[in-house]
Amino acid sequence: MATIEKQVRMVFDLNKCLGCHTCTMACKTQWTDGRVDIPLENLPHNPEGLLYQYWNNVETTYGGETPSRGYPKGVFTPEMGGGFTNPTNPDGSLSDDHTVDPLGPLPSIHEDYGDAWEYNYDEVLKTEGGDATASQMVPIPAPDGPDAYSSNWEEDVGGGTYPNTHYFYLPRLCNHCTKPACLAACPKNAIYKRKEDGVVLIDQSRCEGYRRCVAACPYKKIYYNAAKKKSQKCIFCYPRLEQDTGPNEFQPPRENFCFNQCTGRIRFVGFDTNPVANVNRLVDEFGVALRLHPEYGTSPNLFYVPPLSPPKFGDNGKVIPNSRRIPVELLATMFGDDASSTPGDPSRIARIEEIFALIESERAIVAAGGQSDLVEVLVARQEIDRLQLYLG
Amino acid sequence: MKTKQLNILKLVAPLALAALLIPAISNGFPTDTNTYIVNSVEVGSFTFDDPGGPANNASHPDWATATAADVSLAYIIFASANAYGGFDNWAKVNDNAARLLSVKSIHDGEEILFRVEYADATYDENAHDTPRFFDALALLIPYTGVGWEHCKAGPTSEPLIHMGMRCDGLDEHGDECPAGQENNCKCCPTNIHFWRPDKVEVENIVTNGMGTTLETSETDDPTLFHASQGWENGVWTVVMGRAMVGPPPGEEHPDATHVGPGGYMVTLEAGTSHDTVWANWDGDRNERNGSKFIGLWGTLNICTGNQASCPPWTPPLP
To answer: Which of A206, A245, A253, B143 gets the highest tally of CB atoms within 10 A of its CB?
Structure first.
């Protein structure tokens, strides 16, 4: 794969995600709402094909008899395809017989992503002069019919059986993988990793909209702009990254907007080459962050601290000791260290339990009045503790 | 009307564009057994903009004077080399089925038309959703003008995307190529005339060697290219037209990546024969770029008169 100087790395602490979607709206208003025409290379600025795209989205995730479907619908089902078959050797290197697996269907904008909508702001919000004509904010056009869907269609729905229902929020964006299946799949070589930071971009001047990348990405984080007939994706706000300083000359360079705007302070970002950056401490030193579906073989650079959850209640209404409302088995189907781990494998369950035990023990230390580096890092009291691209 | 002496040319150049690789031929070069003949018979003068003429009326009497050729296409997957993954599993559906184009051609010495009729169960004229792709047709005609005999042929091991590259360091005028650009000297262009239903036009794609697909400037000149189309009851009928002779060379290269409208158009003159390849994409089957049906080499005879004037079928010289 491409030789890069350093790689952006991300960690999301799922114990802190509120599901507020501020990150989603940050990205949407910055790049994909179609109302901002920024004539920069690789930036889409055609509103019609952009509006349905959520480069960042937050999925309510749950298991049970009818598990969550994700975004787009069925994203992590085997039928959706993508990633590499025979991805890696035991040491993690790309195996000689790996191939891109693009056998899955291409998601439909209407049925699987959901058509874009706008809100009737002008009717509801009182503007200069005139009266609001409607009392309620509604989407226009309203998603309707049996195939209706959207990026947060199953918001707060939950799985399981009362009183032990569960869900957690899963914010997602392009993982800017070390071994991007999208890059491997493109017959035009239109996709590349930036040498200076490993950000994966689609050269819009080369892209012909073949959508091999859309099929190949197992996370379905490449979108097809039907108006421009180009494939598009998260650009990691690279124009912000390239500024020497923030708005105030004394401020460090800007980071990507969805990270900057996160109200829950769940997002950590830094470069993989700097061991003191908290992303690397969380992944490598403390070992509490895992990859999402690493079995796809793309080596994603977005890691998640899996979500702890309260214990279950038994039939007698009493707490079941040593239980967790969010099934660890569910988490083990999603999170792992690398491509060698199998979804749901006991080793993954053990790994997640190990993470939980560490976090809980460190929290107990702090609760007892002690100090914990891990807890201090996870709390992230200041922005500069979690937004650390400036460290280089 | 232009009339030239009949001239059967043996093409040894690597004529297969990467996107039109023919797997049944070991190296993509024309064989001694071109599999079909399209005889373009000469008819009375017509224009592209005549709504009732043969350019826009697939049932015009002029079409009855030409004999249809059956062009058989087979499925192929081809893409430029990518070190990270194979493309073999891109076939969406059964790829053993053959596809048949029925092709006729007529000309009036100034413009030439190709009438293509083929079965397609669905009408795919937009890509308004992620899983939607266009129906499309393409006709490849290699350059056979001055210097063609120097067009790079290469051994069977030669990379097939060296279409039309010249190996003697001279350009199409016989002048030396600029230093360091010998392999990119543009002397052997290959034309691909591409139709897609949403555009209702023929797009002229020009290639001159590895990695040299050139974008053709749009033109308001209605006499250079033409398309008309109709889909009914599972059958596409498409008429693709072009001027038989393109613009003069001075208008061809606005810059290194573009040709002028009609630039590097292969000259089609009455009394000449050309090897051709057809390709077809069915949008409903997610066919696009290197995933398509293509035919084997065939012969296009630009006849000097009616069907009787067309040359008998003679295989190219060894």
So the answer is: B143
